[in-house]
Protein 1
Amino acid sequence: MKTKHLIRSALLLALAGSAVWAASLGITLTNQWTHRVPLLLVDGELGSTNQLQYTPVLRETNAWQWLAEIVLTNHPTPYVDGTATNVPERYYRARQLDGGGPPTNAPRAPIYFNLFYHQEGVGSICTGLTNYQEWRDTFWSELITLDLRGVVSDQCLSDYMVEVIRHKDGINAPIFDRFSNSIAKLGYHFHPSSADGAIRTDRIRDREFWAAVQAYPTWERAYYDWSGCTNDLDCILCGSLDTNRPGGIQVMQAAFGKPCVVEHSSVGFAPVALALKAQYTNLVTGWAGGSGWRNLPDSWKLDWEFSPDPYRYAYKLMGFYRLRPHSMAFIEDRRLARVEQMLALLPRDRPHIVQVHGYSSYMTSLLDYLQQFMTNNPGSRFISAAELPDLVDTNRNARSYSMNDLQEGAEYLLRNWHGRPPAFIVTERKYLSLASFFMALQTVLRQYYAQNTWPTNVTVPDFVPPPLGDQTNLPSMDDWRTHLPVSVTNLAQIIQGLHTNEIPYVVEIPVPGGPGLTNPPVKIHAAELLNGMCTLLLKHRAGPSFSEICLFKGHIIPISNVPRECDSSRYQYCATVEPPLPNECRPCQPKATYADNRLDWYNQLQLWTLEPLDLRTIEAPQVR
């Protein structure tokens, strides 16, 4: 069946008095016997009753038909549409029936607003930085306005911008002191006004992972030399890196007189994350890009590719705290009516982070509106992304797991295996990355096979690296089999022989043959091995003896593959423009494989370290 994924979350509204409230709706596919059927993921206020409706054709006027009424018991609550086994298309909406919103006497959790801006609008270095004076004067005015209002913000600059300022206004340019004396936080976003944005990560794109981690600091600290960018409209990839001159984050920190607390450039690349973590231990990062209202027709795709929870903003990835721009909590629009509607849609039984991108002519009216909103919603305030670690409720992310946690996790993975593992593991008490879950299962199964006992709890390190290897070393995906029978003895021997501090990328396992026949060993990768360990744990804990299990075959990359997080191409803009704009990006070629270089591939493997974070309510710090 080919059911289309065409309804994005939180667009279908129910009216309650003067307020607008809604259930949000996501959709994926799941297995029901021999059919693929829609799995609806409904989110909203816990305990609320929601009506699901569908229509076979989507027009301006639709005849919506009743499907079911469900009570929300989880964020989100799943519902399988078993009536859609033989329909080519079906469109869905969800409507909250019981008034919507929390009771009037219930406390409302705060909404935190993160105002961030990439300060880079100085014009092209190829045409003389013609916008510099306008940018400088506007930036100066912004800092004064935000200080007078007491609004903290993340202002992302770079070593390149330092050199532009010095080139135009001298080494002691007044803007450096103005920023140093403001309440703004310093962020890093390397985006020179040429196509050299990936010039540093390009130096490690084809290196083996740990070699890339070791090599990257040299290029991060190198000076970006743009003297070769002549006054020529055709100068695109014109800069170079000089390792004999200082550059990078250290130069920016020294010029602006503040530590860098937020990174919006390269930490999304897996080896870069570990390299920078060793030097800048307190960095928080936000994903580049994101889905704002301007991309509303397509933004649901990015929301639901990443996570089944539409109100999830905070994660850990490669050990870093991450704040992700999100279409359902992202302001980049001058129309206050849309902002008002977006805020009304957020379920207020938990805190939220809304990112506000950019500062422009409409910002004064937006700040007026948001500050009045904060007055009416105690606890809501502006934050820097640097506060994210303090906003996280870490109870569900502790690294000690009970056997019940692991059993629930094994059931969750097998239930959510859709040709590849889920984004992360969710149990009643814990969130686990796939890497942490693998390490925990490996530990308890090794003890069981060695001692025939189960531990009460198991503790894993705070950060477990993902499985690492080249794409070409994976077993073939062309095998027709959807599952692989293996003996428990053979699988137990593999588990007992694993290193205790790393996840194997690929292992070989014997498979049963016919009478008197010996089949050659078969390669399985880390995700398939994890699938097998989940089955082993559940069957061993259930009691009856067994001699064979089936491994479900699939892809090693988790289902939460994020396009922007997994693209290291310095020509990525070409992929969005047909035909490519003149002088914008060269060459322009589509990827021939799942990943066309090692860095691209590692960026996908790092999703094994992804884990969601819950937010909590904290008091605002004092600002001067």
Protein 2
Amino acid sequence: MTARHQDSKPMTKAAIASALDAAQQQLTGAPETAFELADLARAAAVELQDGPGHARSLRIMASARFYQSEMLEAKSLAELALSTAQQAQDSFIEVEALNSLGAICYRLGDFGGAMEWRLLHLDLVTAQRNRVGMFHSLNNLGNLHGELDELEEAYAKHHAAVQLAEELQDVALQAIATTNMGEDLMHLKRHQEAHLYNQKAVELSRTTGNLVALGAALANLACSLHALGDFQDAQVYAREAVEISDRLGDRVGHSYALEMLGRALLGLGDDSALPVLEESVRVLENTEAKSRQVDAHAALAAAYESLGDPARALTQLQASYRLERILHSQQVDQKVRAVTARLELQRLRDEAAHERQERETLSAINTELALAVSKLEQTNDALERLTGQLWQQANTDALTGLLNRSAFVRMLGERILASIDTKAPFCIVFLDLDDFKSVNDRFGHAVGDRLLIIVADRIQQALPQTATIARLSGDEFMMILESHDELRYVEAVLYTLNQPVEVSGHHVQISASAGLSEYPNSGLDIDSLMFQADHAMYQAKQLGKGRFQKAVVSTSDTDSNGF
């Protein structure tokens, strides 16, 4: 069907351009209207064989679907826009299509694809000396650094993007980069600075009338206010963000705004917090936004837990963990693809070096990227070693090499989830050295640290390989054991710890007290099990130390039986 104006006359190329200008203006305020206008122009451009108009209409349609969180359709449209722009030899639309593809892949969690498109975008805008394109490259590379947990690099890129936007005197671009800087600072736990940037981002976005940018800035401002304990103002800004994202049809942004509103209401003790957080999960159904789904489920789980509903909290945590495992697996693959893309770019640049000798000095971004690529020329084995080192630092105790508290709590939560399905009971043991402070006071902390290493080794030797062992802090240790022969293993641990030891030439005699709790008899969640084991351990100390006590929770009260 031929696209026509209201007077039924066929559209001219000038009319197509005018319609696309109108669609562009509607993108961030009424994306569905923008899509319909661009689709009308697309049909006319196809009939008139207007290649640039066809490419531009597809790019605007892709952007409209992006703002509506319809990422797969947005990607297909952006790919069509790119191929059409290349056929029409329209380098301006080609740059915009490459930028759109990078943003879409980033939103889908496809970091490898995002890196490939953004590197192509960077090469093209550098060759064109396109400063607006340079801004988008800086901003997008900052987003990628953020996803790769390179937070300082992300902040630096976004700060450079803000400076470039100020030089261009483009308030809309300033609003985008300032919003991203506020988010970087929140991730860096610099909440007061984040609050200032989020306020500025809201002011800039209001000036431009860009509802997409305004919605994101308002939600970020609510987040920083929540972190600073100002729940009242947080809920005010979050409500406005909810209204805007709902009007735009942006389900991902709507979920984030709803989560910020729910968290603020929860902080105020408002009963409406729970249905708001439940809605933040529901709106993400049938979307590819797994990262947002993980956060939404986790926030809802925290709300259920704070309101005394552990069963529902556990269901939401289970959903969050499952999505997080899927997302982690995908992100590892995508990060490898991102590294591979950088290396492939370097190879292509080397082959084409003789063709680039006539160019002027590469931009600062290209130089920095080339240096980054050279540093990343490592094998996959090197990447795996680095991943292992990071895991070691985050999950193990630096002194003893055992798991640390956070890793133990996570593994205990996973064991609870597994036991819900298998109905298999298990025990946790809370162990504390008796009078360890006197060792430090008498022989010094160096001897005390060496003693803790020996204690950790003796515990590991006394327990089966299936046991999970952690050092929580100081002289406190915790273990997860199967619910068979657990008493024999605990007795073995206490016996071996009761043996004298030579530490740096000093004869040291120690003992330990332990408390046991059992799933599900002693509790159904992490806090209950750890509390009962801790309580039983202190009962053991009161009964004379060097022994263990088993906690039992009855239907009426907490009871303990000594052994």
Protein 3
Amino acid sequence: MPPLPARNSTTPSLARHARLLDAVQAAALTGGWELDLTTGTLHWTEATHRLHDTTPADYAPTVDTAMAFYTEECRPRILAALAQATGGEATGWDLDLEIETASGRRLSVRTVGSVQLEDGKPARITGAIQELSARRHLEAQLRQAQKMEAVGQLAGGIAHDLNNILTVIQGHAAFLEDDVDAGSEPAASALQIRQAATRAATLVRQLLVFGDRHVPRPRAVDLNVLAAAMAEMLQRIMAEDIQVQLVLAPGPVFTTADASLLEQAVLNLAANARDAMPGGGRLLIETAGVTIDDASAHDAPDARAGAFACLSVGDTGDGISREALPHIFEPFFTTKSASHGTGLGLANVRDIVRQHDGWVDVRSEPGGGTTFRLYFPRAMAAVTPPAGASEAANALPPTATILLVEDEAPVRALARTILERAGYRVLEARAGAGALVAWEGHAGDVDLLLTDVMMPDGVSGVDLAQRLRGVRPDLKVLCMSGYQTGNVATELDRMANVGFLAKPFTPEELTAAVARSLAPPPADPAERP
């Protein structure tokens, strides 16, 4: 008979199994425990200690002290489950509860207990406790994503029609302002109409961004140029007791972005800053090219190392409370009254920056003002338009013939009036089929195709432009739309020399876009004498 193994020869195996069990529990964010109902002794595994931010060396659990980790709302539930189990009324429990750890962390946990019998009577309870906070966070993110998807579907469904309506409202309000005496009551009413329409258009654009329905049109953008233009505009619309200060980087700071979205982000931040300074103050807009190393990347959530273009908007206002700060980017969260805020502005800013592969860093102290820093990947070079290109567009005499294609009659009538007041000759059609008929009779006269992108007869604005350019490759094209899908944006980007005008637009925006589209291309420097 071979000799029996020594009594302690299983110790390495048991130790190995213990280490494996502890590693599995740690990976699963789960700990084990056992309560001896005879002696009242409570045993926790290492993983259970870690979950409670304790160690076996500094804490020996008992039923009473362990119960103190549960929040006041949860204690009656776990005590009732324990009483039923020890009294033989239940074989165990499975409860979702909340605990506060020794270090003050509040966690969602699932605790499971199973009664073990000896001689038919409850002798001990073994169980597990699992942290659910990460899962709860993922579930909340999923609910938020589903909510934003619903918002995006709603916004996408109404954006086209609503922006057409807002175009008409803005245009005719502008006509009223032009036709009445400046400073009169009708002029003031017309201004209020235009401002309300502009606010509604901004809200639609924000909803499209939230629902990922806005299709960015990225181009090379110098943040110095964008910030300077925004500062000049903001100084005109801010209260007289708010000073707008501009600090620009010494050289160009390029990024690849949709300039209209960056402008929207700055407007949202400026509106927040204005509301935070009811007694006046200073609004600071600053640009910088920065290089972030690995150590600095840990200073802000979502930050990473690399070269970035930074656009900052700061104020000297009330600051943000520590309680509100973690929630400021949540959609529909606001500390303002219902008449002054929708809770969309800052969430819109964050989503815009994330769409451009960047992040937002916010620093604020109650009573000490707030600074938002928007970081975007830096583009080290950009192709800039030749000097004088915009002046050439504005200086071009409006004598051209424009083929206007728009299915909404009020928008078509408004656009025609704007263009004819500017001196253009206008041919109009309701949709693609009508435009082809008008083209047949005036193909040689048309200088510009001004067309809506989405039309009802199966011939989109892009399709129409491609057909007409098949006959006249040099035809200039300006597309307009209140809402475009990703497929339409891709088709527009593939076509050379096609302008785009977003609805709603003002009369000034329409005439400026038409002038730019009709302007002759800049001369090639190599061809100049």
